[in-house]
Amino acid sequence: MGDIHKVAVLGAGTMGHGIAQICATAGMSVAMRDLNDELLARGRAGIEASLGKLTEKGKIDEAARDAALARVRTTTDLADAVKDADLVVEAIPEKMALKLETFAALAEHAPEHAILASNTSSLSVTEIAGASGDPGRVIGLHFFNPVPLMLLLEIVRGLGTSDATVEAARAFAARVGKEPIVVKDFPGFATSRLGVILGCEAIRMLEAGVASAEDIDKAMELGYRHPMGPLRLTDLVGLDVRLAILDHLHKELGEQFRPPALLRQMVRAGKLGRKAGEGFYTY
Predict the structure, then answer these.
(1) What CATH topology corresponds to 191-274?
(2) CATH architecture of 6-184
(3) To 5 degrees, how large is the angle CA 211–CA 238–CA 252?
(4) For 96, 138, 158, 172, which has the most beta carbons within 10 A of its beta carbon?
(5) Range list of β-strands (E), 123-162
(6) pLDDT at residue 237, as a whole number
(7) Cβ atoms 28, 8 nearer than 8 A
(8) What are the pLDDT digits (tens) for 256-282?
(9) Per the omega criterion (within 30 degrees of 0), is the bond before 230 cis?
(10) Long-range contacts: 57-62, Cβ < 8 Å, 24+?
(11) Which residue spans of the chain are classified as CATH 1.10.1040.10?
């Protein structure tokens, strides 16, 4: 597997456009694909806004900003997006059926040399790889939100992932300025497993009336130096996203991941966090 010059990012949402941005900033050509032009326009606007903030703060100059933007093209055609990619990063919703469908399409349309990566935060990379026809080149590349600012990249090795793919992923991490950790394909990996159990316990504490949301968060921010408390972080990630991960881990790993009743009730009420204007806090 050679150097990565061209990247296809499938999904122009928060994670997708963030991944596209850091690849373009690192000098790679990027094809960003989503289902319609409206989603693509929103994703491109997100890249422009993020690069604008970095320019204002003096992190990059205007020439670098403009060059990065020029390296990103958008398309609604999956085959067109991946036709000459060295790396494909899937950043679509966390639904196994969608991911299996996507990786089956990649088996047909992506070049044979391309690394096929999923940004999944909890689903089995081994299962996803099974749809690709070539598990050796499939890997998990789990980025964190906001992608341009968060240093960690969790590299998830599926059962069939080759050593060459892992090493190529490490080299890619270095090129886009991320610190990688390599974990085996186990439910929740390292980060989701630890992160959601903390958030889950915080919700149970709120449910039991132990303390207010503000004070539970302050305990972790000031007592343990977490940059954001677990309830505020759940609002940022999305309560529906957290619930889906907990449901999956409860099924795979057991009772400690059973979702709190309060979380399920809030999701049913549409209180999904920051994106809905209300979660554990009001926005």
Answers:
(1) N-(1-d-carboxylethyl)-l-norvaline Dehydrogenase; domain 2 (1.10.1040)
(2) 3-Layer(aba) Sandwich (3.40)
(3) 90
(4) 138
(5) 138-142, 152-157
(6) 87
(7) no
(8) 999 999 999 999 999 999 999 999 999
(9) no
(10) 60/25
(11) 191-274
